[in-house]
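<derive_structure_tokens>
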Amino acid sequence: MPIYTRTGDAGTTALFSGQRISKAHPRVESYGTLDELNAALSLCVCATGCGQHRSLLEAIQQQLFWFSAELACESETPTSNQRYISMEDIATLEAAIDTAMARVPPLHGFILPGRSEAASRLHFARTIARRAERCLVELSTEVAVRQVLMRYINRLSDCLYALARAEDHDAHQQTIIQEVTRRYLASTHALPAKDYAMSLSFQDLHQLTRSAVARAEEVNIPVVVSIVDGNGTQMVTWRMPDALLVSSELAPKKAWTAVAMKSATHELALAVQPGAPLFGLESHMQGKVVTFGGGFPLWRDGQLIGGLGISGGSVEQDMDIAQAAIAAINVSTHR
């Protein structure tokens, strides 16, 4: 059976009632735009990496069929055996919006539409949803349109925006994980088993702490000294009298970051700027990573054996105190 009927060759189409209207009528434009939106959502379903998002989008696609069918009817009220958009569907969209937005950091300005394919497709679908809403508003000036439909299409565009933000967030987080892993592995090479026994000795820990405190006293800056081993496990934390309370949080984070990233913390500053490979690293790590000076990895004979973090003065003062301490023992800050 052919799919063509030739009945629309004159530029008209039939509603469910059988009445023929122009294909340029606002009613046809409205459900035609919903059809376009449905096709765009199919691309979103294929691109998204989140199973919950796929399930939601597929449910929305089904709802758009009901939506279009209602617009193709002349009746203002759906029949008892007809599927139609309800307030429960709107509530589902609002719940999805709240869930997605709770996962992403707040914005204080405009954003470019999508840094990942899934987010880009969702943003594109969002613009079609906005156009569908405009079509529906125009249609409502000529025929009665249920208010629930107006609310639904408005929430749908918001929902697609929220899902796009969440997809971007997930994709960017994965990029950061891959970049951190790449950097970590790039600086790690197979070493003979005996080399893994190397670590900071008690004398190393004592000398690092003593030298850091001596330099801090010399420049009259009370600091917190923190030392971790090559696995990031805390070994020493020493707080000088009158050191800032916040330094008790920052010094261990600097030491841990230096080991985790195998890099001095001040060297990470450029890598976390917008557009750089590790942009957003601090927020993704819930503040555990520090990207300003005062943290140094400790290397010996090509092996990472620990990290030192100093906090209490300016960035320059913290770095100076740390470098003075490191110079007192047989370690390097680079592999």
In short: The first helix runs from residue 26 to 47. DSSP finds nine helices and six strands in the chain. The two ends are 73 Å apart (CA to CA). Residues 303 and 335 are 7 Å apart (CA to CA).
